Structures are given as structure tokens and as C-alpha cells.
Inverse folding.
């Protein structure tokens, strides 16, 4: 590029300038820019010097002057004390300073891990405890008269490698005090087949308790009609079988039988079926642990015993309305002028059942379980029998033990006489 050539002399200070001279100079500049452009060679020929430049920039890069006249392009600018940083950090990494002039990247490792403050640095670690349950939920559906219970992540989707369910278990070796954590990354379910009752009764609310078991590192689901009182020990399950024969309330059922495996309670499903074992009605409630925070104030009480049912029954009636404290879903109190009165429990547990009454004549009284007629000496029915030889005596009967949901308690007059006063009291201890 030739140097700019002007047809007039340079401007002189304190002199008049002709407009033609000014226009001539601007015309020269205009011609120069429109025909030759500005590049390093033209600039140099024109007597213009400068430091290096970036001809072609990169999107999202930062232009840096190093202080000596040179320029560079950087993908990221991570200055720290002393000017040292990471020029190419990994996506998704956390940046951690060492307190001096360097910076390191703490990269993602295993899903579900956390960041631990060690007191001197930060580190990646697994979040877990022996009873750890994370990112899980339960789904329960009915179809073809069967009940299907599935393990889901907290969003209600099947577990996956990007959304795993994590469950803590005790060690499968009884003499070991350590624990293990298992991860579920695929769909998992258990089926209660048509005909299997799990010990439930028709037309009554019943609970199905849902468990995870650790089968040598593989998590499986199991169900039971009752709650296992101790998850600290190992359990042995029975195969559900798929043929409608899983009918015990006190047995834990899994798809295949397992021997001495760790277990973890996940939740419960409340179900009322018109016919026990025909799973046709959708569950009324699905609950995750924890639940059942109960105290001795969880009780049902009926008082004012003064008659029997009119329908040739021995079952005592109570004049006062039932009083339920605590969780009202635990009990169903039934008062019938024909059949007499009763208290039904809707949840498994350890209960204290007691009754007190005053008799009008020589008679026998029984606190009965699941019987409207009573049977002295039958441990499946007789919770306590008291025989009086004369009127005016006050009797007390009490029993404390584990009772499954669906148990019915009644006060029975064995010789058809009527009490003058009395009550029946049922309280759930745990």
C-alpha cells in the first residue's frame, strides 16, 4: 500500500484552510479504505505499527493482553491468587482452591455422592447410614384380581442409573456389626396373586407391609400382612407362588423364597377388598416410613355395660358412645342393639385389652377374641374368664400380647345374665 499522497501541503497552524484542500484529503482517505482495505501489510506500508492482533476470534472466548503487547484467546478465565488457574476445566466439576495460588477440579463420580468438609479440604463421599433410604417411592395397582406393588424413584418413575434408589441394610452375617448399601437402577416389583389374602379379611381395611430384602447384593421386594417388629435381624421369606396361596398374616412373602436375608421396611398399603384375596379395589392409602408414632393414649374405650344384644346373643352392650383417642384409624367400634358391641383393631401391634364389670348374680364372664359365643379354655378365643359365685362382685380381666389387624374383642356373658356396670378398653402399645 503506498503512503497517502496529498495534492496540497500540510496544514499550517494559524492559517486559513481552504475547503477544497480538506475535501481533497478526505477523498484520498476514502479511496484508500475502499480499494485496499486495512491489513498488517497496508498498515505497515502506511507507517502505522501495532502489537499482534487476533484476526479471527472464537465465540465465547476471552481476549487477554499479557502486558507486553501480545493478545491471546482463552476459553475460560479462572484467575486465582498468583494468577494460576485452570485453562480447561471439566464440565460439571467443582473448582476448589488450595489456599495458595492453584485451583483443582473436583469431578463428579458416583450418583448420590456428596461433598464432605474434612476440616482441611473438600472431598467426594457416599452419603449413607445403616437405615438409609433415598430417592424412593411406592406404587400399588390392581388388575386381574392381583395386587402389584412397585418400587419407584421419588418422581414416580422406575429407578435408573441416573436416578437410582438407595437402601441401607444390615450385614447378612449375624456376627458382623457393619452395614451395606444397595442401589436399584431398574424396574422392581412384587405381585400378590389372585386368591392370596395375606391374612386379610373381607370388607375390612387391611394393611400390606412392603419390604426390601438384600439377596446377596440384589434388592428384591417382599410383602406381609403384618409388620416385622425387628429389622435388625435376618428374615426368611416364603415364595408367593403366583397361585393364590399366600394366605398367612404372619409370613413374609417374596417372589422366590429367600433364607436369612437382611430386610428393610419401605412402607405400607391400605386396602379394603369386598372379598379377601380378590384384589379389585385400588388401595386407599400408600405410606412411606416413618409412620406409627404411637403412645399409650392411642386407645378405644366403651363404658356403661348394662345389657346384652337382643338377638339371642351373649355379647354385652354398652350404654355410652365409644371414645377413641390418638389415631382413630386404628379402631372400629361397633354398637348393635341386636348383636351386642365390639371393638375391632385395624392395625397389627401389641395391645393391652382389659375389661371390668359388676355382676348381678352368680355368673361367668369372658373377654373373647373373634367369637360371639365364647369358649372357656380355648386360647384362640378365651382372653380371660372370670366366674363369680354371688352377685355384687366386681371382676377385671386383662391381656397384653401381639394381635393382628382384624382382631375383634367382645365381653361375653356366659350364662346370659346382664352386668350392672362395666367397660372394655383396648390400647395399642406399639
Amino acid at each position: 500500500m503506498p503512503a497517502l499522497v496529498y495534492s496540497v501541503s500540510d496544514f499550517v497552524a494559524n492559517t486559513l484552510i481552504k475547503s477544497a484542500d480538506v475535501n481533497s484529503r478526505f477523498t484520498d482517505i476514502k479511496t484508500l479504505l475502499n480499494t485496499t482495505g486495512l491489513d498488517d501489510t497496508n498498515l505497515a506500508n502506511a507507517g502505522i505499527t501495532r502489537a499482534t492482533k487476533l484476526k479471527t476470534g472464537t465465540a465465547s472466548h476471552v481476549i487477554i493482553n499479557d502486558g507486553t503487547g501480545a493478545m491471546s484467546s482463552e476459553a475460560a478465565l479462572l484467575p486465582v491468587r498468583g494468577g494460576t488457574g485452570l485453562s480447561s476445566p471439566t464440565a460439571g466439576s467443582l473448582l476448589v482452591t488450595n489456599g495458595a495460588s492453584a485451583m483443582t477440579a473436583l469431578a463428579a463420580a458416583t450418583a448420590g455422592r456428596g461433598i464432605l468438609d474434612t476440616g482441611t479440604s473438600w472431598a467426594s463421599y457416599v452419603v449413607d447410614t445403616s437405615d438409609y433410604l433415598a430417592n424412593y417411592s411406592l406404587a400399588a395397582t390392581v388388575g386381574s384380581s392381583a395386587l402389584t406393588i412397585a418400587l419407584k424413584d421419588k418422581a414416580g418413575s422406575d429407578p435408573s442409573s441416573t436416578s437410582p434408589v438407595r437402601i441401607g441394610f444390615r450385614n447378612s452375617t449375624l456376627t458382623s456389626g457393619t452395614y451395606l448399601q444397595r442401589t436399584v437402577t431398574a424396574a422392581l416389583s412384587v405381585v400378590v396373586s389372585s386368591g392370596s389374602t395375606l391374612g386379610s379379611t373381607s370388607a375390612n381395611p387391611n394393611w400390606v407391609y412392603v419390604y426390601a430384602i438384600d439377596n446377596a447384593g440384589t434388592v428384591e421386594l417382599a410383602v406381609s400382612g403384618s409388620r416385622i417388629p425387628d429389622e435388625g435381624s435376618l428374615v426368611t421369606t416364603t415364595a408367593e407362588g403366583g397361585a393364590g396361596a399366600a394366605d398367612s398374616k404372619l409370613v413374609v412373602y417374596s417372589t422366590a423364597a429367600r433364607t436369612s436375608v437382611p430386610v428393610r421396611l419401605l412402607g405400607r398399603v391400605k386396602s379394603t377388598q369386598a372379598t379377601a384375596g380378590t384384589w379389585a379395589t385400588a388401595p386407599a392409602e400408600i405410606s412411606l416410613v416413618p409412620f406409627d408414632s404411637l403412645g399409650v393414649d392411642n386407645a378405644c374405650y366403651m363404658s356403661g355395660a348394662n345389657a346384652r344384644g337382643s338377638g339371642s346373643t351373649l355379647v354385652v352392650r354398652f350404654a355410652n358412645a365409644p371414645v377413641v383417642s390418638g389415631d382413630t384409624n386404628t379402631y372400629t367400634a361397633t354398637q348393635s342393639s341386636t348383636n351386642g358391641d365390639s371393638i375391632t383393631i385395624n392395625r397389627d401391634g401389641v395391645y393391652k385389652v382389659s375389661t371390668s364389670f359388676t355382676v348381678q348374680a352368680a355368673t361367668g364372664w369372658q373377654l373373647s377374641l373373634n367369637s360371639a359365643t365364647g369358649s372357656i379354655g380355648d386360647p384362640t378365643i378365651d382372653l380371660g374368664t372370670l366366674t363369680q359365685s354371688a352377685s355384687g362382685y366386681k371382676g377385671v380381666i386383662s391381656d397384653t400380647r401381639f394381635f393382628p389387624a382384624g382382631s375383634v374383642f367382645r365381653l361375653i356373658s356366659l350364662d346370659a345374665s346382664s352386668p350392672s356396670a362395666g367397660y372394655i378398653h383396648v390400647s395399642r402399645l406399639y
In short: The radius of gyration is 42 Å. The chain has a mean pLDDT of 79.
